[in-house]
Design a protein that fits this description.
By secondary structure, the protein is α+β, with helices and mostly antiparallel strands. 15% of the residues lie in helices and 35% in strands.
């Protein structure tokens, strides 16, 4: 009996030391890459009801996919091309501000919901985006937590290419965001000066744990 107690105490001490060194977190993931899908746009009935405000449209596409058989074609409209939503009375037309940009938003309140809001066990949010145009465009992603703290990321999508967008979640921690209670993902492309709608394709929105992205403390 005494030997069993000694072994239990020793095991507890070893675990405490490992936890202090952060080794329990590593063991939890097993140093193996892990992916959790947020939206792969395969289900036409359930994957496309992001909030758009009437200034963008998501539709299923059979081209430029990077995961599965489908992607989402996202069309961003100009200010004067508001598409009235069936749920809004005809008299209600949102008026964009001078710095406004059309967006698609996946959050905990949209019809297609952000179902994973605890991101603590992941190292990055990733999205594949294809720009079908010849000219490059600038993309933006804003991530927000339940307390409305947010983090903005932007970059260039080259023409006729897939851009593998990656947002390191450690950067959100640096902004003091609550990774245990994330609320929304906003995506848009820069429409400043555009006179025509602009379309891009998105796919494979996911959270990843990648041991190579773990920063040493």
């Amino acid at each position: 009996m005494r030997i069993v107690l000694i072994l239990l105490v020793a095991a507890g001490l070893i675990y405490a030391v490992a936890a202090g060194l952060g080794l329990t977190h590593i063991r939890k993931h097993g140093l193996v890459k892990k992916t959790t899908m947020l939206d792969d746009f395969e289900d036409v009935d359930n994957d496309f009801d992001w909030f758009t405000g009437g200034y963008a449209k998501l539709e299923q596409a059979n081209q430029n996919q990077t995961h599965g058989k489908h992607s989402a074609k996202v069309t961003f409209y100009t200010r004067n091309q508001f598409q009235a939503m069936p749920t809004l009375p005809p008299a209600i037309t949102p008026t964009p501000e001078p710095t406004w940009q059309p967006q698609i938003v996946l959050n905990t309140h949209s019809v297609t919901k952000l179902t994973v809001y605890d991101w603590q066990d992941f190292t990055s949010l990733k999205l594949d985006a294809f720009n079908p145009m010849d000219q490059p465009v600038t993309y933006h992603i804003t991530l927000s937590d339940s307390k409305t703290f947010s983090h903005d990321t932007s970059g260039v999508m080259l023409g006729k290419k897939v851009t593998n967008i990656s947002v390191l979640l450690d950067d959100l921690s640096q902004d003091r965001m609550d990774l245990s209670n994330m609320d929304s993902i906003q995506f848009w492309v820069d429409m400043n000066g555009a006179s025509q709608p602009m379309s891009v394709y998105v796919d494979n929105l996911r959270l990843e744990f990648d041991p190579g992205e773990v920063k040493k403390k």
